[in-house]
Amino acid sequence: MARFNLFDAEEKLLEQAGELRTQMAEASPEVRDGLDRLIDAYGRGVREQRRLVKVSDRLQAQLATVNQELGKRKAEAEEALDHLKAAQESLVQAEKLASLGALVGGVAHEINTPVGIALSCASHLADATARMRKLFEADDIGVDDFERFMATVTDTTGLILSNCERAADLIRSFKQVAVDRTTSERRRFDLGAYIRETLASLAPHLRQAGHAVTVDCPEAVEMNSYPGALSQVLSNFVMNSLIHGFDPGQVGSIGIQVERPDPGSVRILYCDNGKGIADEHRGRVFDPFFTTRRGAGGSGLGLNIVYNLVVGPLGGSVQVEPRDGGGTCFVVTIPLSAE
C-alpha cells in the first residue's frame, strides 16, 4: 500500500509542477523549456516506475505459483522416496527370509542322510533281535549265533550313535545360526567355530557344486558382536560365488582367511577363484538392485545386504579387490567388540 501512496505523492508533485509552469508563463523561454523538460522527465520516470511495479507484481505471482508447484513436487518426491524405501526394506527382508529358507532346506536335506542310516541300522538291529528271541525261545542258541548277534549289535549301535551325533551336530549348528539370523542378538562367540558352523549349514550347496572350501583362522578369537549378521554376510558371499563366480559344472575353490591387523579388530578375507568381477562393475557391486544376472535369479540385494550389515551392526568396512590369477576377494574389517 505504501508503494501506491508514493505514486499518489508523485502525481501530486506533477500537478504542482503543472501549476508552477502556469505561474511561470511570463518567465524567459529558456526557463520554461528547462522546466518543461524537467517535468516531462519526471513524468517518464513515474510511468517507468509504475511499469516496473506491474512487472514485479507479475513476476512475484509467477514465482509464488512456481514455489507452490515446487512444494507440491517435493511432497510427491518425498512420498515416492518413502514408498521406495519401504519397498526396498521389504525386498531386503524377503531376501533374508529366502536365504534362511534355503538354509532350512539344505540342512533338512543334510540331516536326512544320517537319520536314514540310523533308521536302517535300527531296523536291522530289530530284525536281528527278533531272530535271537526266536532262537532263545526254542532253546536253540549256539555260540556262533550269539557271536554273530553281538557283532551285529556292536556294528549297528556304533553306526546309530555316530549318525545320531552327526545329525545332532547339524541340528545344533542350524539352530544356533537360525536363531542368530532371526533375533539379531549380540553375544560372545568363537569366530573360527562360528565360521565353520555357518559353512556346515551351507554344506549341501557346496557339496552339490563340488567346490573345495578352506578356513584359516587363529585359535581362540573371541568376539562380542552380532553372529547373525556375520553369518548372513558369509552366506551371501558363498551364494554370490555359487551364482555369479562359477559357471555351471565348474569346480572351484573358496578360501576364508582371518587376520589380526590390530588387537581390537579382525580382517576376514573371503576369496574364490571364479570368473571375478569386471572392472566397470567393481564400483557398483554394493549398490542396491545392481546385478549382472537380471532375470536369471539375481535380485541385486545380496551384496547390498552385506554392506549394510558390515557397516551397520558389525561396525566395520567391506571392499572388493581383484585376485591375482582370477577370481574375487572380499575384505571385511570389523572390531572384536561391536559398538
From TrEMBL:
What's the protein here called? histidine kinase
Q: Where is the Histidine kinase domain?
A: 106-338
UniProt key word Coiled coil: yes
The source organism is Paramagnetospirillum marisnigri
Matching Gene3D superfamilies? 1.10.287.130, Histidine kinase-like ATPase, C-terminal domain
EC number of this enzyme:
2.7.13.3
Per its record, what are the GO molecular function terms? phosphorelay sensor kinase activity
Q: Which UniProt keywords apply?
A: Coiled coil, Kinase, Transferase
List the catalysed reactions: ATP + protein L-histidine = ADP + protein N-phospho-L-histidine
Nucleus among keywords: no
Q: Which Pfam families match?
A: HATPase_c
Coiled-coil regions listed: 67-97
